[in-house]
Amino acid sequence: GVESCIGSKVVSVAVTPNGYADAVHNNRFVMPEERAMKLSDVLDILELKTKASGVFYIQKQCSNLTEEFPELMGDVESHIPWMSEALGKLPDAVNFWLGEEAAVTSMHKDHYENLYCVISGEKHFILHPPSDRPFIPYEMYQPAKYRVHDDGSFQVVDEEGVEKIPWIPLDPLSPDLNLYPEYRKTRPFHCTVRAGEMLYLPSLWFHHVRQSHGCIAGKN
Q1: Who's near 161: CB < 8 A, 6+ residues apart?
Q2: DSSP alpha helices (H): ranges in 47-104?
Q3: Which residues contact 130 (CB under 8 A, 6 or more apart)?
Q4: How far apart are CA 183 and CA 135, in angstroms?
Q5: The total number of structural domains that make up the chain
Q6: Would you say 171 and 206 are in contact if contact means Cβ atoms under 8 Å apart?
Q7: What CATH code is carried by the domain that includes residue 49?
Q8: Closest CA to 6 of 34, 41, 36, 35
Q9: What CA–CA distance (Å, rounded) separates 127 from 140?
Q10: What is the pLDDT of residues 70-110, one digit of tens each?
Q11: Rounded-to-integer distance, Cα 10 and Cα 54, Å
Q12: Which of 51, 69, 152, 180 is the most buried (most CB within 10 A)?
């Protein structure tokens, strides 16, 4: 398993009080605390062998599969050949994600092509095509980060000297249609990607992502 192969590895883990990393909270765009931990310790928390305050998610975007977990490259492809052929290039990044059910990716869009590959568990997507953009609200937010104190409590700390960030305040799981009535005009797609399946997500498509507990996924 993953633990026997790379359990002693130190990895970067996003820690939040509510599972929402990189999301709007109390009129701030709040990023997670980034904590260096042994992977075996993260797995103990996810498997409830160890108690810990907060929600833990390995979710780096910096090609962490190839950079942090080269030991796993013998078990997975470094790229998806048909995708590389279709796009005419190899992936810019190959990412490894591992998290619990409470970890949620708030709705956003990327300026690059994504291919999600689920290894275990499942991911639940809410998708909007770019044509829904006029009906999806954006606002500007002060960037901040969660900081965890020794007693396990979380504090939101503003990032000094950083420009405001545009982000989507709406939660598609329970949209406030009184505040954002235009959202009624959108046509979201709902899909579940299970172990062994892939989802191609074109550039500029909006996506909100949930997952099952202990879901392991890769993203090209």
Answers
A1: none
A2: 64-68, 81-87
A3: 109, 204, 205, 206
A4: 5
A5: 1
A6: no
A7: 2.60.120.10
A8: 41
A9: 22
A10: 676 666 777 788 888 888 988 888 888 888 899 999 999 99
A11: 19
A12: 69
Report the residue count for the chain.
220
- Higher pLDDT pick, 48 / 14: 14
- What one-letter code names the amino acid at 28? R
Q: How many CB atoms lie within 10 A of CB 114?
A: 16
Place of tokens 């890769």: 218
What is the mean pLDDT of the segment spanning 147-151? 92
Average pLDDT over residues 130-150: 97
The rounded distance, in Å, linking the Cα atoms of 118 and 215 is: 8
- The Cα 215–Cα 220 span in angstroms is 17
- Closest residue by Cα to residue 40 from 8, 1, 71: 8
For tokens 């797609």, name the residue: 189
Residues whose CB is less than 8 angstroms from the CB of residue 18 and which lie 6 or more positions away in sequence, other chains included: 25, 55, 102
Measure the CA–CA gap between 63 and 73, rounded to whole angstroms. Answer: 12
Instruction: Determine the pLDDT at residue 70.
Output: 66
Alpha-carbon span 106 to 155, nearest angstrom: 20
pTM of the model: 0.87
Residue identified by tokens 């949930």 is: 210
Lowest mean pLDDT among 47-56, 106-115, 117-126, 145-154: 47-56
Structure tokens belonging to residue 82: 């048909």
Q: What is the pLDDT of residue 78?
A: 72
Q: What is the pLDDT of residues 9-31, one digit of tens each?
A: 888 899 999 999 999 999 999 99
Q: Among 141, 146, 175, which residue's Cα sits nearest to residue 18?
A: 146
